[in-house]
Amino acid sequence: MRQLYLTTAITAALFGAPALAQTAQGSFDWSGPYVGLGYMTGDVTILATTSSTGRAVQAGYLFDQGALVYGAEALRGGVDVDTGFGGTGVNTQLRGLLGYNMGKTLIFVNLGYARAELLNSLIGDLRDTGISKGIGLRYAVTGQVSFGIDYSTLAIDDFDGTGVDLDTRTWAYSVSYHF
To answer: 15 partner at 20 to 30 Å CA-CA among 34, 43, 100, 165?
Structure first.
Protein backbone atom coordinates (compact mmCIF):
# COMPACT_ATOMS: atom_id res chain seq x y z
CA MET A 1 0.00 0.00 0.00
CA ARG A 2 2.83 2.39 0.89
CA GLN A 3 4.37 1.67 -2.52
CA LEU A 4 1.08 2.63 -4.24
CA TYR A 5 1.00 6.00 -2.45
CA LEU A 6 4.65 6.66 -3.34
CA THR A 7 4.07 5.73 -6.99
CA THR A 8 1.01 8.00 -7.11
CA ALA A 9 2.93 10.95 -5.65
CA ILE A 10 5.87 10.51 -8.03
CA THR A 11 3.56 10.17 -11.06
CA ALA A 12 1.64 13.31 -10.11
CA ALA A 13 4.84 15.30 -9.57
CA LEU A 14 6.56 14.19 -12.78
CA PHE A 15 3.66 14.41 -15.22
CA GLY A 16 1.36 16.95 -13.62
CA ALA A 17 3.61 19.89 -12.71
CA PRO A 18 3.89 21.37 -16.24
CA ALA A 19 0.13 21.68 -16.53
CA LEU A 20 -0.58 23.02 -13.05
CA ALA A 21 -1.06 26.58 -14.30
CA GLN A 22 -3.80 25.46 -16.72
CA THR A 23 -6.14 24.12 -14.05
CA ALA A 24 -5.44 26.73 -11.39
CA GLN A 25 -8.34 28.76 -12.80
CA GLY A 26 -10.80 25.93 -12.10
CA SER A 27 -11.54 24.66 -15.60
CA PHE A 28 -10.58 21.28 -17.02
CA ASP A 29 -11.16 19.76 -20.44
CA TRP A 30 -11.92 16.07 -19.85
CA SER A 31 -11.69 15.29 -23.60
CA GLY A 32 -9.14 12.79 -24.84
CA PRO A 33 -7.44 9.54 -23.93
CA TYR A 34 -6.27 8.55 -20.46
CA VAL A 35 -4.63 5.63 -18.65
CA GLY A 36 -4.61 4.89 -14.96
CA LEU A 37 -3.75 2.62 -12.07
CA GLY A 38 -6.01 1.77 -9.18
CA TYR A 39 -6.55 -0.01 -5.90
CA MET A 40 -9.77 -1.97 -5.41
CA THR A 41 -11.50 -3.17 -2.28
CA GLY A 42 -14.90 -4.70 -1.77
CA ASP A 43 -17.05 -7.74 -1.18
CA VAL A 44 -17.46 -10.85 -3.30
CA THR A 45 -20.41 -13.13 -2.61
CA ILE A 46 -20.23 -16.65 -3.97
CA LEU A 47 -21.53 -19.18 -1.41
CA ALA A 48 -20.51 -16.68 1.32
CA THR A 49 -19.53 -13.00 1.44
CA THR A 50 -15.78 -12.38 1.61
CA SER A 51 -13.60 -9.31 1.46
CA SER A 52 -11.26 -8.70 -1.42
CA THR A 53 -8.49 -6.26 -2.29
CA GLY A 54 -6.42 -5.83 -5.42
CA ARG A 55 -5.08 -3.64 -8.19
CA ALA A 56 -6.45 -2.49 -11.53
CA VAL A 57 -5.41 -0.78 -14.76
CA GLN A 58 -7.73 1.31 -16.89
CA ALA A 59 -7.70 3.13 -20.20
CA GLY A 60 -10.37 5.20 -21.84
CA TYR A 61 -11.41 8.10 -24.01
CA LEU A 62 -13.76 10.92 -23.01
CA PHE A 63 -15.62 13.58 -24.96
CA ASP A 64 -16.23 16.86 -23.11
CA GLN A 65 -19.26 18.73 -24.47
CA GLY A 66 -19.49 21.48 -21.87
CA ALA A 67 -21.55 20.22 -18.95
CA LEU A 68 -21.92 16.76 -20.53
CA VAL A 69 -19.00 14.30 -20.60
CA TYR A 70 -19.28 10.84 -22.14
CA GLY A 71 -16.94 8.12 -23.29
CA ALA A 72 -15.75 4.55 -22.95
CA GLU A 73 -13.34 2.80 -20.61
CA ALA A 74 -11.67 -0.59 -20.38
CA LEU A 75 -10.70 -1.83 -16.93
CA ARG A 76 -8.91 -4.97 -15.75
CA GLY A 77 -8.40 -5.80 -12.12
CA GLY A 78 -7.16 -8.69 -10.05
CA VAL A 79 -8.14 -9.34 -6.45
CA ASP A 80 -7.38 -11.93 -3.79
CA VAL A 81 -10.63 -13.67 -2.88
CA ASP A 82 -10.81 -15.38 0.51
CA THR A 83 -13.08 -18.32 -0.32
CA GLY A 84 -11.70 -20.53 2.42
CA PHE A 85 -9.58 -22.41 -0.11
CA GLY A 86 -7.83 -19.47 -1.77
CA GLY A 87 -8.34 -17.98 -5.16
CA THR A 88 -7.82 -15.01 -7.38
CA GLY A 89 -10.64 -12.99 -8.88
CA VAL A 90 -10.17 -11.23 -12.20
CA ASN A 91 -12.61 -8.58 -13.36
CA THR A 92 -12.53 -7.22 -16.91
CA GLN A 93 -14.96 -4.47 -17.88
CA LEU A 94 -15.80 -2.55 -21.04
CA ARG A 95 -18.08 0.25 -19.98
CA GLY A 96 -19.61 3.49 -21.08
CA LEU A 97 -19.41 6.60 -18.90
CA LEU A 98 -21.87 9.50 -18.78
CA GLY A 99 -21.00 12.41 -16.55
CA TYR A 100 -21.55 15.96 -15.46
CA ASN A 101 -18.61 18.36 -15.76
CA MET A 102 -18.19 20.61 -12.74
CA GLY A 103 -14.86 22.09 -13.84
CA LYS A 104 -12.10 20.14 -12.14
CA THR A 105 -14.65 17.61 -10.81
CA LEU A 106 -16.43 15.00 -12.93
CA ILE A 107 -19.40 13.08 -11.50
CA PHE A 108 -20.44 10.08 -13.61
CA VAL A 109 -22.42 6.88 -13.95
CA ASN A 110 -21.16 3.84 -15.81
CA LEU A 111 -22.73 0.79 -17.39
CA GLY A 112 -21.03 -1.99 -19.27
CA TYR A 113 -20.09 -5.55 -20.07
CA ALA A 114 -18.09 -7.42 -17.44
CA ARG A 115 -16.29 -10.75 -17.37
CA ALA A 116 -15.66 -12.23 -13.93
CA GLU A 117 -13.19 -15.03 -13.35
CA LEU A 118 -12.42 -17.04 -10.21
CA LEU A 119 -9.11 -18.83 -10.64
CA ASN A 120 -8.41 -21.66 -8.20
CA SER A 121 -6.37 -24.83 -8.63
CA LEU A 122 -8.46 -26.76 -6.08
CA ILE A 123 -11.94 -26.26 -7.57
CA GLY A 124 -10.94 -25.24 -11.09
CA ASP A 125 -11.33 -21.97 -12.94
CA LEU A 126 -14.79 -20.43 -13.27
CA ARG A 127 -15.72 -17.69 -15.79
CA ASP A 128 -18.91 -15.87 -16.71
CA THR A 129 -20.19 -12.53 -17.99
CA GLY A 130 -22.71 -9.97 -16.82
CA ILE A 131 -23.61 -6.30 -16.69
CA SER A 132 -21.70 -3.94 -14.40
CA LYS A 133 -23.05 -0.61 -13.22
CA GLY A 134 -21.76 2.09 -10.96
CA ILE A 135 -21.18 5.71 -10.02
CA GLY A 136 -18.00 7.69 -9.58
CA LEU A 137 -16.17 10.94 -9.18
CA ARG A 138 -12.89 12.18 -10.63
CA TYR A 139 -10.98 15.27 -9.59
CA ALA A 140 -8.35 16.94 -11.80
CA VAL A 141 -5.33 17.62 -9.61
CA THR A 142 -3.42 19.15 -12.53
CA GLY A 143 -4.05 19.58 -16.25
CA GLN A 144 -3.03 15.98 -16.88
CA VAL A 145 -3.50 14.05 -13.62
CA SER A 146 -6.78 13.14 -11.95
CA PHE A 147 -7.69 11.12 -8.89
CA GLY A 148 -10.86 9.05 -8.90
CA ILE A 149 -13.16 6.98 -6.77
CA ASP A 150 -15.96 4.81 -8.03
CA TYR A 151 -18.36 2.20 -6.75
CA SER A 152 -19.53 -0.60 -9.03
CA THR A 153 -21.65 -3.72 -8.76
CA LEU A 154 -21.85 -6.91 -10.77
CA ALA A 155 -24.46 -9.66 -10.36
CA ILE A 156 -24.33 -12.93 -12.29
CA ASP A 157 -26.98 -15.60 -11.73
CA ASP A 158 -25.86 -19.26 -12.01
CA PHE A 159 -22.14 -18.35 -12.22
CA ASP A 160 -20.48 -20.53 -14.90
CA GLY A 161 -23.33 -23.08 -14.67
CA THR A 162 -22.58 -23.90 -11.01
CA GLY A 163 -26.06 -23.03 -9.73
CA VAL A 164 -24.45 -20.43 -7.45
CA ASP A 165 -24.89 -16.67 -7.90
CA LEU A 166 -21.97 -14.22 -7.93
CA ASP A 167 -22.34 -10.69 -6.59
CA THR A 168 -19.55 -8.13 -6.29
CA ARG A 169 -19.54 -4.66 -4.75
CA THR A 170 -16.27 -2.83 -5.35
CA TRP A 171 -14.76 0.53 -4.44
CA ALA A 172 -11.92 1.58 -6.74
CA TYR A 173 -9.46 4.40 -6.05
CA SER A 174 -7.41 5.49 -9.06
CA VAL A 175 -4.90 7.95 -10.44
CA SER A 176 -5.07 8.68 -14.18
CA TYR A 177 -2.84 10.46 -16.66
CA HIS A 178 -4.71 12.39 -19.38
CA PHE A 179 -2.98 12.89 -22.75
So the answer is: 100
